[in-house]
Each structure stands twice: as C-alpha cells, then as structure tokens.
What does this fold into?
Amino acid sequence: MPQVLVVSRHRQFTALIHWATNTLRTVPAGNVAVVDGTLPELENDVVDLVRDSYRVLVYGGVLHSSRVLRLMDLGVRGYVPETATLPVLLTAVKSIAADGTHLPFDPASGRSYIPLTTAEEIAADAYFLNDEELPRVEVAKRLGIADSTLRNQLASVRRKLGIPPQASRTAVSRRYRATVRQAAPSR
It folds into this structure.
C-alpha cells in the first residue's frame, strides 16, 4: 500500500483521503502526497513536497487548465477535480504511486485531444521520452531524418498540445507524457 501524506486545512478532506486510500489493496510502493486543490499556498506546498521526493496529486477545487499546467511544471503528477467520483480518485492515487500520471482532460489546450500523425508521435516519443538526454541533432540521426524535419515535427506537436515554443524540453516532456500518452486512442 502506498504511503499517503494528506495536505489540507480541513479535517473532513484529510479523513476522506485516508478512508479512501485505505481501501486500496495492491498498489506499488511510492510516497504519494494528496494536496487539497483549494489551499491558498498550493504552489508553495507543491514545491516543498516535490523537493521532499513525494509524488504529488492535487485533488479538489476546479482548477483552470493554465493553473494545472503551472502545477505540472512544478512537479505535480496528477490532478483530480472535486467533481470526480471516488473511483477516479483511487485510480489517480494508484497511477501516481506507480510512478505514473493522472489527468482527466487535456490540460495543454482545454479542448478535445488533437491526434498526432504517426511521424509526430515517433518524433515526440524519441525526443521527449526515449532519448531525453540527447541533443535534437542526435535524435534526428537515430531516427534517420534531417534535423530540420525533426524540428518541424516537434513544433507541430507543441502546437497541437498548446505548448508555447519557449517551454523547456523537460516541461514539454512532462506534459507530453501526461496528456498525449493517456489521451491517445489505442492504435
């Protein structure tokens, strides 16, 4: 069962999370922090927990997608709005404990998922997931395409996900992993 830390100013919130997570039976080990999405210092609390190596799930409140993205940039692994059902919350805790992510919508754009082409998906997987340490030129060589082709494919991926061009590779990788990989229909 995961070690679950609850960060909230409300006893009912804390009791609900502890009660709900006690129903989980088989979950990979991992320190998960469930943070109340209505806390006034939410961003500061998240930074502290991520620094302490917690996998952070924000639960509660109805946060705008831009705020969810900002929280993801700070290291949040998932978000569950207060309108979600208990099974959704439990699924999110399991996913976060297993070193995954959980987002019930596409936070990058606030709109329906725009599918990537096969070439864009291959490029994004290679650059953002598989070869995160390699420069773009080296990733292009491994894929057998020109650097300019890879650059154009990655720009298209950023546009489709609503990610600004100045976002860091790490931030884009986190968003790509959280949105596309969960939202993509099975091929």
Observations:
- The chain is about 50% helix and 10% strand.
